[in-house]
Amino acid sequence: MNDANMIVATTIPVFSLLVALVIVVVAMILKSRSDGRRHTERMLLAEKGMPIPPELYDAPERRDSKPNGYRAGRAWLLVLGSVMFFVGLGVTVFGAARGEHAENGLVPLFIGLGFLVAERMIAKMIARPEKPSEKL
């Protein structure tokens, strides 16, 4: 394998992981800004003595208490997990069959496996009823 192919083989996984990291950071920044705007609006309503509508309270907590609120997230985890897992498996098997670098497919394979494990953890969390905390 020449140097150009080796550079491409190492750059693509690193670039894809950096893109995923940037997406997560941007999502966190946007969520933080949204929460800040909601907080500012609640404070302005409270200063004016107006009633605060229930929609302005912590909506994620109410949404998370419903098992149906997880359906879309679980569906995406299943789809992305399955696609990444089988793409990684295909690249690994194809690379092994050609006698080249089969380990290049392990990155997407394990990312897909992580998505699938995350979906199973969410499913167990939904199925298990929360126990009220005992006060001492």
Could you outline the blueprint of secondary structure elements for this entry?
Blueprint: H1 3-47, H2 59-64, H3 71-98, H4 106-127
- As for the number of domains, it is 2
- Care to count the β-strands? 0
Which structural class should the secondary elements be placed in? mainly alpha
Measured on Cα atoms, how large is the radius of gyration? Answer: 22 Å
C-alpha geometry: elongated
Biggest β-sheet, characterized? none
Terminal residue distance: 66 Å
Summed over residues and divided by their number, the pLDDT gives a mean of 80
Count of helix runs = 4
Low-confidence region ranges: none
Proportion of residues in β-strands: under 5%
Q: Would you mind describing this structure in some detail?
A:
The protein has about 140 residues and is mostly helical. The protein folds into two domains: about 60 residues; about 60 residues. The chain contains four helices and no strands. The longest helix is centred in the N-terminal third of the chain and has 45 residues. The radius of gyration is 22 Å and the shape is elongated. It starts with a helix and ends in a 9-residue tail after the last helix.
Features:
136 residues; 2 domains; 74% helix; elongated; single chain; mainly alpha
